[in-house]
Predict the 3D structure of the following.
Amino acid sequence: MPYGNYFKVPGCGNTLLVGDAAGLADPFLGEGIYYAHRSAELAARAVIAGFTRPGQALAFYRESFRRCLLPEMRYAWAGRQVVFALPPRLYYPFLVLFLRLAPKIAEQTIQGRRSFRWFRLKTPCPR
């Protein structure tokens, strides 16, 4: 699965795509569990919100997807572009050094508790 090739509209009609089906592999690290869980949560909320308004689940999901997941995908893609623009002999040592110096930041980012946007602690989207 190519990293960063996510769908901007994660579904069609009454079908909502989540996780890998929506192309949600982290563009920087290739991790997908957080995005699979989070997108499934957002899709479930959209289905519940659209229960009384048939045909609106995709609109609800698209809005929360756009607000909660796409910014992170874009920041991760930008980080990928910067790091992997380095010569191959440099980007691996750079990543190893970062993981050794800031393991908690890396862990929290992978778990979705910290944003790729300058590694700030996230203000979570509504849960």
